[in-house]
């Protein structure tokens, strides 16, 4: 090496010194301070082994059974402190080639799991992962989906564990996510009910609109599938086997707004839905669309207004009571203390979403825009937004937008600004193709 006054000593064989690091963004005199958002991996589903899922459920112990129905059973699971709800599909329902109820087999469930995990929504039950048989041995074990476990569901909150039961309740989805055992029922105030209705609608609008060129239909909207956490915040359950309908080419070419109000039809096999909540075209011909969910949603809203069991005669009476305030007062649940102006708007929603003629029936998105958003603007309710649901960029607004295709969430303002000004997602630096408002 070379030595000398003021000279740098370089030893023979020593690696060259790395150049000095550039100052981090936002640091330095005269620079604009911009928050640096860490890169976050793109969310994706985990694929779990059969041994892990079996151990989490004590080898499918009957003591862990939360509920069962036409498509399988749901078990309470625990893994490394995490509380799971494990849905195991009944192999007798899968038939040949792994095709089961609603035309979904193991391959379709795998695709659905990946789709829902990449496009998360705060009011849709989170899918933690799945367990599927190997391709070369499809009969090795039944497919399973693992969800986060919730405290209870809307049916139990409305009627209690041993109280009035809505006819036809108690399917496999009813236990998905919550055991409900030992949960004491406290009255549901009208503001909480209104927020729950809004959150269910926001989850359905997301399902119907988030996947370009497709309409994902839940096909079994009912209080049993509206799961609640300790704050009575909604997670819509049983989305793992929702029906994903391919939109026709002519529909895909329409604008987003026109596409969302259009009707896309698919024929669905037996085993989907609960008959009290089924739209007429779904029950008679097995046809489903986004407006099928709107009809079921109207029945749920009637139950929130009245706390009466699901019944089509009740739905018809409620829809005809839109302009009859005396009949509305007679129908309303006194426990909720509904203000008449709020109740009247919800009866209007019920009528719009329950038309027998599908062409006249509203979509859930139309109900959101015409009734629910104006209602919440006039009668603000507590948002029940947990700290982790606040935007990670501004830390001021809730995460109400999803970046496509990466699936990261932020507030609509921040997500749009990053796309417009920087042409990238704030988290993964990928280029967004769309920003979807998730209400």
Question: Any overview of this molecule?
Answer:
GO terms for molecular function: ATP binding; protein kinase activity; zinc ion binding. This is Protein kinase domain-containing protein. With 439 residues, the protein is α+β, with helices and mostly antiparallel strands. It is 32% helix and 14% strand. The strands form five sheets. It has a six-stranded mixed β-sheet with strand order 1-5-6-4-3-2, sandwiched between helices. The protein has a three-stranded antiparallel β-sheet with strand order 7-9-10. A three-stranded antiparallel β-sheet has the order 15-14-16. It has helices spanning 50-56, 91-94, 106-118, 154-159, 190-209, 249-252, 256-261, 280-285, 290-306, 312-320, 325-331, 340-353, 364-378, 412-422; strands spanning 46-47, 65-69, 72-79, 82-89, 127-131, 144-148, 152-153, 214-217, 226-228, 234-236, 243-246, 266-267, 287-288, 401-404, 409-410, 434-437. It is globular, with a radius of gyration of 25 Å. The protein has three domains: 46-149, Phosphorylase Kinase, domain 1 (2-Layer Sandwich); 190-243 and 272-378, Orthogonal Bundle (Transferase(Phosphotransferase), domain 1); 387-437, Zinc/RING finger domain, C3HC4 (zinc finger) (Herpes Virus-1, 2-Layer Sandwich), CATH 3.30.40.
């Amino acid at each position: 090496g070379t030595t000398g006054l003021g000279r740098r000593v370089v030893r023979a064989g020593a690696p060259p010194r790395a150049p000095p690091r550039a100052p981090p963004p936002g640091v330095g005199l005269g620079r604009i301070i911009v928050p640096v958002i860490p890169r976050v991996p793109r969310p994706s589903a985990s694929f779990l082994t059969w041994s892990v899922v079996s151990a989490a459920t004590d080898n499918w112990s009957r003591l862990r059974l939360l509920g069962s129905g036409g498509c399988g059973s749901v078990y309470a699971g625990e893994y490394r402190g995490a509380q799971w709800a494990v849905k195991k599909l009944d192999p007798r329902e899968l038939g040949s080639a792994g095709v089961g109820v609603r035309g979904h087999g193991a391959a379709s469930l795998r695709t659905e799991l990946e789709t829902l995990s990449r496009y998360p929504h705060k009011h849709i039950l989170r899918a933690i992962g799945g367990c599927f048989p190997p391709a070369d041995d499809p009969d090795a074990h039944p497919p399973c989906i693992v969800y986060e476990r919730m405290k209870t569901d809307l049916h139990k909150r409305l009627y209690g564990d041993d109280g009035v039961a809505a006819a036809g309740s108690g399917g496999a989805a009813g236990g998905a996510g919550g055991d409900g055992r030992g949960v004491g029922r406290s009255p549901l105030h009208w503001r909480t009910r209104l927020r729950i209705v809004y959150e269910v609608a926001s989850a359905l609008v997301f399902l119907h609109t988030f996947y370009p060129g497709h309409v994902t239909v839940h096909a079994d909207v009912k209080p049993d599938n509206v799961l609640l956490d300790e704050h009575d915040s909604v997670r819509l359950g049983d989305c793992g086997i929702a029906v994903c309908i391919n939109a026709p080419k002519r529909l895909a070419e329409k604008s987003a707004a026109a596409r969302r109000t259009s009707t896309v039809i698919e024929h669905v096999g037996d085993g989907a839905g609960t008959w009290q909540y089924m739209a007429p075209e779904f029950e008679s011909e097995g046809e489903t669309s986004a407006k099928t969910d709107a009809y079921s949603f109207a029945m749920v809203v009637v139950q929130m207004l009245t706390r009466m069991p699901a019944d089509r005669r009740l739905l018809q009476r409620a829809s005809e009571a839109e302009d009859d305030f005396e009949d509305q007062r007679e129908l309303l649940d006194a426990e909720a203390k509904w203000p008449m102006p709020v109740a009247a708007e919800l009866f209007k929603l019920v009528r719009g979403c329950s038309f027998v003629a599908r062409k006249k029936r509203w979509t859930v998105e139309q109900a959101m825009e015409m009734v629910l958003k104006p209602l919440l603007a006039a009668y603000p309710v507590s948002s029940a937004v947990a700290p982790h649901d606040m935007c990670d960029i501004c830390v001021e607004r809730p995460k109400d937008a999803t970046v496509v295709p990466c699936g990261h969430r932020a507030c609509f303002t921040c997500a749009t600004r990053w796309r417009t000004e920087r042409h990238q997602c704030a988290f993964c630096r990928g280029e967004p193709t769309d920003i979807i408002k998730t209400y």
